[in-house]
Amino acid sequence: MSTIAKLMFLLTLVPVLEVSILIPLHDLIGGWWTLGLVVCTATLGTMLIKWQGGLALRRIKEAIADGKLPGDEILDGVLILVSSITLITPGVVTDTIGLILLVPSFRAPIRRYVSGRVKRWIEGKSPAGVAYGDLEEDDGPIPPRWQEAPAEEAAHLGRPDDIL
Predict the structure, then answer these.
(1) What's the whole-model pTM score?
(2) Pick from 67, 75, 93, 114: most CB atoms within 10 A?
């Protein structure tokens, strides 16, 4: 299934799921209470997003100041952004997902999962199976596969000395 098809399926499924939950909830607690619940979760989520987003931004700045790559911190920021999108969408399921993504202890395993998926995706896209960051100390800044490449292949791989 293509990415567009998955996205279309998700954009169709979420509203149907939300309505199928909101109607029985309306019957159970009443219309005004249901509306109040949706508005309160959105308001609470907005406050939490400002707080968690500020913390994520501060951790990104601290990592950069320490000379580290802020990979986990940026991923936290992306998950907070996804949380804000789900909290803007009215409904019980999306609000629950959004609030769960705002809790750091719930966000950590999600971050590890996403990070692992991204690493596998990058390794699958690297030339000749070279895993970035897995170089031996004596290999220098250019992966060995690139050093041994013929001139026409080196131009395709983008060897730095071919640019000059």
Answers:
(1) 0.66
(2) 75
